[in-house]
Amino acid sequence: MIITQATMDDFEGILSLIRANHINYISERDKPDGFVTTNFTDAQLEALIVNEHGVTIAKENGKVLSFAMAASWEFWVEWPFFACMIEKLPEFTFEGQTLTRQNSYQYGPICIDKSVRGTGLFERVFYASLASMRERYPIMATFINQINHRSYAAHTKKVPLMTLGTFQFNQNDYYLMACSTALTQK
Ligand SMILES: CC(C)(COP(=O)(O)OP(=O)(O)OC[C@H]1O[C@@H](n2cnc3c(N)ncnc32)[C@H](O)[C@@H]1OP(=O)(O)O)[C@@H](O)C(=O)NCCC(=O)NCCS
What we know:
InterPro entries: Acyl_CoA_acyltransferase (IPR016181). This is N-acetyltransferase domain-containing protein. The protein has helices at residues 11-21, 42-50, 73-76, 80-88, 121-133, 149-158, and strands spanning 2-5, 55-60, 63-71, 93-94, 97-98, 104-112, 139-145, 162-169, 172-180. The protein is an alpha+beta fold. The chain binds coenzyme A (COA).
């Protein structure tokens, strides 16, 4: 398994993993194991890979088995959901610091192919993504839909994200989570 930053060669593999795990496409039976809600146009995904260097992937035999997205708030602001999160940043404090567009970035979505869940790959991709942003930001911030229990369990038990509070968008309830980018895998 290779863990690396994605290039445009990985574009189709990332897209197909998004589709396989997106709430708009997955079956009711698969929902308890988590889902992705962010939609990307081809241009947005290309900008994330090329301009933000913001996609960490795991691949084996050329197949993308995991991705984790990460980018500046300036990148995410064009999604109404993230514009809402940005407005709420001043309401949240991490280790004594109020979250800002300058001291934090947005991580997620992350996705692990069904075939390799529960293998420890989640932790490896998570920490590789964190390391890729360490030089740029001290704080990682993210959201988790409160009905995505598997994602919440993974991000609190397998990696130590802190829950800073909750917020609502379009009648859905979310946790606002954060951690220091100085964290490394034990
Ligand atoms: C969320 C995700 C990234 C976690 O990676 P993973 O490899 O499945 O994580 P793990 O299995 O190592 O850890 C998840 C934990 O949740 C627990 N869990 C599994 N199903 C669960 C459920 N339905 N409800 C609550 N917890 C659950 C597991 O038992 C495990 O904890 P344990 O090993 O201590 O028992 C992965 O499941 C995934 O890609 N899901 C689809 C997309 C998604 O939801 N992405 C996150 C949203 S941004």
